[in-house]
UniProtKB/TrEMBL annotation:
This is Elongator complex protein 5. CDD domains: Elp5. Residues 240-263 are annotated as: Disordered. It comes from the Eukaryota. InterPro entries: Elp5 (IPR019519), P-loop_NTPase (IPR027417). It holds the Pfam family Elong_Iki1. GO terms for molecular function: tRNA binding. GO terms for biological process: tRNA wobble uridine modification. It is found in: Cytoplasm; Nucleus.
């Protein structure tokens, strides 16, 4: 879970008498509420589920339950789900349920697919020479295929599809060069519970040369300012009348009603 100032981790598994146990979905939602309640209601959160495969999707807990439970939280949020298509589903996964990849592809506003950069280069080189790609040679093998250089640390190929509300979408292909030796600090949920203070919005920590906050005096002055488009609606406007004196061209001749057209 990500916030502008901190990152927090909510583990899915825990130990109970040396046994590895998995938390219920309701417990995870409660942990998220514990974190969000410490912040102002105007704060925006990024909730990252890494990964959805760890839930062992069955008929008892499905993908729609997880997503709807998180989206029902009364906070401003962005939900990011990570799904590993290379991990097979359990045999108990209902056959009448859509595959997680199909379900996520249907409801997501942005889909980011990650591929090995070396695989993309090998595929492109094979197509340029009208040869069979290395991955197609292994397609007839049963089981999980992990081609060579799958975990290439030089970079990754990113395929992004962003869908707009009007039905249009933006498709982009890019390459991300991975930087090594970078460690990101993440606070565990148990350590977070030990904090009793309320975390407020920390704008002063931003590296900017101007102030974004207003003092109480400035807020009162702002409220007392009358904007022009409000002031114009309150100005008294006296009633006006239009006086019109009919001329000869307005006389109607009953014998020739179109006579006025010849004037």
């Amino acid at each position: 879970m990500h916030h502008a100032a901190s990152d927090y981790s909510i583990p899915l598994f825990y130990k109970d008498n040396k046994n590895l146990m998995k938390k219920e979905l309701s417990t995870l939602i409660y942990n998220i509420k514990e974190i969000t309640s410490k912040y102002e209601i105007s704060q925006r959160f990024i909730i990252l589920v890494d990964s959805i495969d760890a839930f062992n999707l069955t008929n008892k807990i499905n993908l729609s339950d997880i997503i709807s439970s998180i989206l029902s939280l009364n906070v401003s949020k962005t939900l990011i789900l990570i799904y590993h298509s290379s991990i097979p589903l359990l045999k108990s996964y209902p056959v009448y349920y859509p595959l997680p990849s199909e379900f996520l592809s249907y409801i997501s506003t942005t889909i980011i697919s990650v591929h090995s950069l070396s695989h993309k280069i090998a595929t492109k080189n094979a197509k340029d020479k009208a040869l069979i790609t290395p991955l197609e040679n292994d397609s007839c093998i049963e089981g999980i295929i992990v081609p060579l250089d799958s975990n290439d640390t030089s970079g990754i190929f990113i395929d992004t599809e962003h869908r707009r509300k009007n039905g249009k979408y933006i498709h982009e292909e890019s390459v991300l060069m991975i930087k090594t030796n970078v460690i990101k600090s993440i606070v565990d949920i148990d350590h977070f519970k030990k904090k009793t203070y309320i975390i407020e919005k920390q704008i002063e920590d931003l590296n900017i040369n101007f102030n974004l906050t207003l003092t109480d005096k400035q807020k009162k002055q702002k409220e007392s300012v009358i904007l022009p488009h409000f002031k114009s609606q309150t100005i008294y406007q006296p009633e006006s009348s239009i006086f019109y004196s009919p001329g000869s061209e307005d006389d109607l001749d009953e014998e020739d009603p179109d006579n006025d057209l010849l004037l």
